[in-house]
Specification:
heterotrimer, A mainly alpha (about 675), B mainly alpha (about 100), C mainly alpha (about 500), A: about 675 residues, mainly alpha, globular, B: 3 helices
């Protein structure tokens, strides 16, 4: 029988087809190829839904479709493409294809109606972006995942730099590409190391690398090369190497700096990057190979700590930003911090849940911001807005729904998922892990800041009196903008109901559907149940007994306090800037803790020599090397050319110096004058 | 007879004086003269060691060097003339339109 | 086959060089018969024909085996001061082909300028010097031929007398060149002091027993290396190159960066391989191959890194030319006392031949763009392919070939060079070269991207097609392409010529 799984490759191929169509014939198509993209993503969505239904009937799919490098003999390493469709992948497919579809529709309003040029290029980019992310989601091995991971990075480069004639976007695109690629170097080393260690990079099934690793730790598998380390140590190293790629793509501290700059791209692209694709890829990768990470308490602890810290760190910076998209950018970093915290704290389901809810409410917020930006004639400064509530009610109420979800106000989606992440961190932390407790504490404080900056944004944008002429008479938006907003607004309000753990604990009614969804499955090594055992056996996670509704109440109170403070300060007809009261802290936050400055310093004086070393690993991936080395080298090149001062006397001096140095070095080396 | 090492020292000293000249002089003509000093340092060597080795190769070569130095000056003066026409000075540091 | 030199008098072995010099004199003669009228066609024609004749004769000699191991070895003239062998003929071929293309292209470039006859005769005199450089068997001829190549070049760079850029370039080239030639002369005098001879063969036999004078010999050898570094535009004597190539008339940039550089390598190959044999000088502590290895690494890195950030295409090419000097230096660096040194040096020679075509073509394309008055930066090239697709296609060939991409000549020559370096045990040189090549693809492809992918920023008003320039660019492109299938015989010839030096 031909089932959904036979059509699964089409989920990836359809958007790819739309990429080809837009690229080749976008010029001649109406709307610059938009309809092809919409049709393709709609097709992907339908197929994803079918896959979802098939998976929910208890099926799973894990097949190698194409072997592109096969060594001679039986035991050699094979490089393959394949599909892995389990509950996690099915859920992610739905998220990605739905958000991609909505973004395509929204783009009609944001790009076409605004008379942008270069639309075929835009839609081609969107198509390829969607296709690469979907390919990444269904990848059945680490190498394939890596390749699509890189494609995602490439597409983000192309799309962030879409307006390449302005000065900002190309440099933002370059930065996004460079920073994430820096992480990817570690990822690539990790992929090679995984191959070297296990001889395979498959995620699931017979002889998958998490399974071998588990056996190795249990002492029942022999053929693992650990290069002289104890298996635990080596697996931790592997996990951390791969984590490098995750930190880069998911914009975790300290590689988060590219993301705020990435706001230079078109807003629908920001929505796609932040909600469903690029940034989500990192977290998804950790979830995908969670069976491997669950073996290493050290790696988990680091993930949790990085996540918690990032959540707090980014939230504080979001407090002082002036541009609406900047606030959202920092909120994204912060929210992905929560997901990392959840994963590190052993909350596989909680983190996946947050990934799900965040995808919808963050896509909503970005598209809402896009609508506002259309209305404001592409002015993004919140201090020039105000009072938009009466003038664009649909946008306002959907945006409000997203904001409530982001701030974590009951009963909107974000409350349930964020609460569960924090709950996992708390119980496992109390169970004997001070690292997780630290992560929890930071995550909790970040809740307050989240509530504050979210509602500061809402109040400044929509409430009070209009502060500029444009805000008094904003540009209208059409159905193609409102439609996606409404769909996402409803989802943001309701999607949290799939997993209401605190309510279940209070009332005893069975409400944790997502837990059920992820806990079981045909591929038993990829289920939450199995992960729970691994966490208990290898990472030694134990749970303290804390009622989930208590933890939920605490974070809700903090979120309300933050929102309340924003209400007091900013929900007035003529809000003023209170940030000055923060004094030096404001400067620090406004300048993002001077992250960019120190990273440029690192890039020029530390990374450069390091990246030359890293080259040797990359000889096979010519593309990556060419781009990576070239871009990083531009820093060096701009310095080196300064030697050529233009003054001929300096040349004579340098020439003499060079000759003298050579004479001295060789004279001493050769012992000419002894 | 003066030992040949002294000629070597003299030649090196003259060469270094010439080098010092090109490093410190901005005037193109003085720059050229300094180069002439360096060439003549080579000539001192050639002639001195010609005597030392007992063949005339070095002496002959020093004649070539002088002739070529003259040719070089001829071309050099031409270039300095057009430099003066274009920049109204013979200061070599003025011509710095192309750099980096 | 009967060796050629038994059929012809021995002096005819330098016929290619003589033909170049003769053409220069004929040009002056034609001009002096009727100094008041300019006849660009006749002058360019004579120059092109003369260089083509040189090319033909040198090619014939090379194929016939004149001066090569198969037919009795190198031909020595004037007591060994001039040597005609595979190396000298090979580089004469390189120089003559570059001069032919440059003369052809200059027809359009010079159309409305005065002093055309002087221009062509200076080019041919410099070419004579370059051809002689490859034949120099004595340090005296080395110095004289080097100056014969340099002095006309200074004048040619400053040829556009009213153009500040050209004058500035000429000044810098001249001043750095004067200092370098002084350094070279002093180096020669020191080597003479240590060995008592200027003939390379005698120097080679005497240098090993320099005894107390090892320091003098060492300083002399390093200074001579410095003089050659100037000719080849290698660090630290490269400072003139970016400016001279940028400011000079573009055909002259092509001439200098291809032919002059090749000639610099020709003389360096002969002087160091013949005059300072490694197994004699290395035990004394004069390890010049290490010196060139350092220069190679620094030169290719500096050239490529600086090229990567340029905005001006011509200046980018200038720096890339410095970078290529670094690659070619591998031919002098990846040598060892006993190794198969001829292979890597031959690969370097073959690379210089391919480079002669692709780099000349690239600079002549720039000349064409200057002729059209399009502009100099990458942005100015945006969308140029919409107006001049054939020329842009040729430029694409040059760029990809320079970057070392298949299927162009530059790919094989660079590959052979790195391969031979690895065979000689110098894998790290090859690795640095490979990294630099990867970087170079970045800036070469910027040109291609600008021409083909970007939209034009304004209207191009190109005017009539410059026939000579077009033809020269096409010849260079076809040459670059043909050198891919023809690379086998080329590299074999070069390697046997280089092996003969070490024998």
């Amino acid at each position: 029988m031909v089932g959904a799984f036979d059509y699964a490759p089409a989920i990836v191929l359809l958007p790819f087809l739309s990429f080809l169509v837009a690229l080749a014939g976008g010029k001649y198509l109406p709307k610059g190829g938009a309809f092809g993209g919409i049709a393709a993503t709609a097709g992907s969505l339908v197929l994803s839904a079918w896959v979802f239904l098939t998976v929910s009937a208890g099926n799973a799919y894990n097949e190698t479709l194409y072997t592109w490098v096969a060594g001679a003999g039986e035991e050699t390493t094979r490089l393959t493409f394949g599909l892995l469709l389990d509950p996690l992948a099915a859920m992610m497919l739905l998220i990605v294809s739905l958000v991609a579809l909505l973004v395509h529709v929204f783009s009609l309003g944001y790009m076409n109606d605004e008379g942008e040029t270069g639309l075929p290029r835009y839609y081609a980019g969107l198509g390829l972006f969607t296709a690469s992310m979907l390919g990444f989601v269904v990848a059945d091995n680490l190498l394939m995942a890596f390749m699509f991971f890189e494609l995602v990075g490439l597409c983000s480069y192309l799309l962030i730099g879409f307006w390449f004639r302005d000065s900002g976007p190309p440099s933002a695109a370059k930065k996004a590409f460079l920073v994430t690629r820096f992480g990817d170097y570690f990822f690539l080393v990790g992929v090679v190391a995984v191959f070297a260690t296990f001889g395979t990079a498959k995620f699931a099934g017979e002889g998958a690398f998490p399974v071998i690793a588990e056996e190795a730790l249990a002492g029942s598998a022999a053929e693992v090369t650990t290069f002289g380390f104890a298996p635990e140590t080596w697996f931790t190293i592997l996990g951390l190497l791969i984590l490098g790629g995750v930190i880069g793509k998911s914009a975790q501290f300290p590689l988060h700096t590219w993301l705020p700059d990435a706001m230079e791209g078109p807003t629908p692209v920001s929505a796609l990057i932040h909600a469903a694709t690029m940034v989500a890829a990192g977290v998804y990768l950790v979830a995908r190979m969670y069976g491997f990470y669950a073996l290493s308490p050290t790696a988990l602890g680091i993930i949790a700590l990085v996540g918690g810290f990032t959540a707090l760190f980014a939230a504080t910076m979001g407090v002082v930003k002036r541009e609406i998209k900047q606030v959202l950018a920092y909120s994204t970093i912060s929210q992905y911090g929560y997901m990392m915290l959840g994963l590190g704290a052993g909350g596989y389901v909680a983190a996946s849940f947050h990934l799900l809810t965040h995808a919808f409410f963050k896509a909503l917020l970005f598209l809402g911001a896009g609508a506002v930006i259309i209305a404001m004639h592409h002015d993004e400064d919140m201090w020039n807005m105000g009072g938009l509530k009466e003038r664009m009610p649909v946008t306002y109420y959907t945006f409000l729904s997203g904001s409530l979800a982001l701030a974590g106000i009951v009963p909107f989606a974000g409350f349930w998922s964020k609460d569960e992440v924090l709950y996992e961190a708390l119980v496992h932390g109390l169970g004997g892990s001070p690292l997780l407790l630290a992560g929890y504490a930071m995550g909790l404080v970040a809740v307050f800041f989240t509530g504050f900056y979210t509602f500061r944004m809402v109040f400044l944008t929509f409430h009070g009196e209009p502060r500029t002429e444009v805000a008094r008479d904003p540009h209208g938006v059409r159905w193609n903008v409102k439609g996606p907003l409404v769909v996402l607004g409803i989802l943001a309000a309701t999607i949290g109901f799939v997993n209401m753990v605190p309510v279940q604990d209070l009332t005893g009614i069975h409400l944790e559907f997502l837990h059920d969804w992820l806990a079981h499955g045909e591929l038993s090594a990829l289920t939450a149940e199995h992960y729970g055992e691994l966490l208990h056996d290898y990472a030694h996670y134990t749970s303290a007994d804390v009622a989930s509704y208590v933890a939920g109440a605490v974070s809700l109170a903090l979120a309300l306090a933050g929102a309340g403070l924003a209400h007091v300060l900013y929900n007035v007809p003529e809000p003023t800037e209170h940030t000055a009261k923060l004094g030096a802290v404001k400067d620090l936050w406004y300048n993002n803790y001077y992250q960019d400055e120190y990273q440029i310093w690192i890039a020029t004086s530390v990374v450069l020599p390091l990246s030359r070393l890293a080259d040797k690993f990359d000889q096979g991936v010519v593309d990556g090397v060419v781009n990576g080395v070239s871009s990083v080298s531009l820093f060096a090149g701009s310095r080196i050319r300064r030697i050529q001062t233009g003054v001929v006397s300096n040349y004579a001096a340098l020439l003499t110096l060079g000759l003298t140095a050579l004479l001295v070095v060789f004279g001493v080396l050769g012992g000419w004058f002894v | 007879m003066v030992p040949v090492q002294w000629y070597l020292l003299l030649a090196t000293a003259v060469f270094c004086i010439g080098l010092f000249g090109i490093l410190t002089r901005k005037n193109a003509l003085l720059f050229l003269m300094s180069v002439e000093l360096m060439l003549n340092a080579a000539n001192i060597n050639l002639v001195a060691f010609s005597a030392y080795w007992g063949n005339i190769t070095g002496q002959t070569f020093s004649l070539f060097t002088m002739a070529l130095a003259a040719a070089e000056v001829a071309v050099g003066i031409g270039i300095i003339l057009v430099l003066y026409r274009n920049f109204d000075d013979v200061d070599v540091t003025l011509a710095k339109g192309m750099r980096w | 086959m009967t060796p050629l030199q038994t059929q012809l008098p021995t002096w005819t072995a330098v016929a290619p060089t003589l033909l170049l010099g003769l053409t220069a004199l004929v040009l002056l003669l034609v001009d002096s018969i009727d100094p008041d009228s300019t006849r660009p066609g006749a002058l360019a024609g004579i120059a092109t024909l003369g260089s083509l004749a040189t090319l033909a004769v040198a090619g014939w000699f090379l194929l016939a085996g004149t001066g090569q191991t198969g037919s009795g070895g190198a031909i020595e003239l004037y007591g060994g001061s001039l040597v005609v062998d595979g190396l000298s003929l090979f580089f004469t071929v390189v120089v003559a082909s570059v001069v032919a293309m440059v003369s052809l292209a200059s027809y359009d470039y010079l159309r409305d300028r005065t002093y055309q006859a002087e221009f062509y005769s200076l080019v041919l005199l410099a070419a004579t010097g370059m051809s002689l450089m490859g034949s120099s068997g004595s340090l005296a001829t080395v110095f004289i031929s080097l100056e014969l190549a340099s002095l006309p070049s200074y004048a040619l760079v400053a040829f556009l007398k009213d153009n500040r850029g050209s004058v500035e370039a000429g000044l810098k080239y001249f001043l750095v060149g004067a200092v370098s030639s002084a350094v070279l002369t002093f180096g020669i005098s020191l080597v003479y002091a240590a060995t008592g001879s200027l003939l390379l063969a005698d120097v080679a036999s005497a240098v090993g027993s320099a005894g107390d004078l090892v320091g003098i010999a060492g300083v002399g050898i390093v200074m001579i290396a410095g003089g050659f570094a100037f000719k080849t535009a290698s660090v630290p004597f490269h400072f003139w190159a970016p400016e001279a190539y940028e400011g000079a008339p573009a055909p002259i940039s092509a001439f200098l960066s291809s032919a002059s550089k090749a000639a610099g390598f020709a003389v360096a190959f002969r002087v160091f391989a013949v005059g300072f044999p490694l197994d004699a000088v290395v035990p004394m502590g004069i390890d010049w191959s290490l010196l060139f290895a350092i220069l190679a690494v620094v030169t290719m890195t500096l050239g490529n890194f600086a090229a990567a950030t340029q905005e001006n295409v011509k200046r980018m090419l200038a720096y890339s030319s410095v970078g290529h000097a670094g690659y070619a230096l591998i031919g002098l660096a990846a040598l060892s006392g006993g190794g198969p040194n001829g292979n890597v040096m031959g690969a370097s020679m073959a690379h210089l031949l391919v480079y002669g075509f692709m780099n000349t073509g690239a600079f002549l394309f720039i000349a064409m763009v200057e002729h059209w008055e399009v502009g100099r930066t990458f942005e100015d090239y945006n969308g140029l392919a919409t107006r001049a697709p054939a020329a842009c296609l040729a430029m694409t060939v040059f760029m990809f070939s320079l970057a070392g991409l298949p299927p162009f000549g530059g790919f094989l020559s660079k590959y052979a060079l790195f391969y031979e370096a690895i065979q000689g045990g110098f894998w790290w040189l090859a690795a640095v070269g490979a990294i630099n090549s990867a970087l170079s693809l970045f800036y070469y492809s910027r040109v291609v991207k600008a021409m083909w992918i970007e939209d034009p920023t304004g209207e191009f008003d190109l005017g009539a097609t410059p026939v000579g320039l077009y033809a020269a660019v096409m010849v260079a492109a076809v040459g670059t392409l043909l050198l891919l299938p023809a690379f086998g015989p080329v590299v074999e010839t070069a390697q046997s010529a280089a092996t003969a030096l070490f024998a």
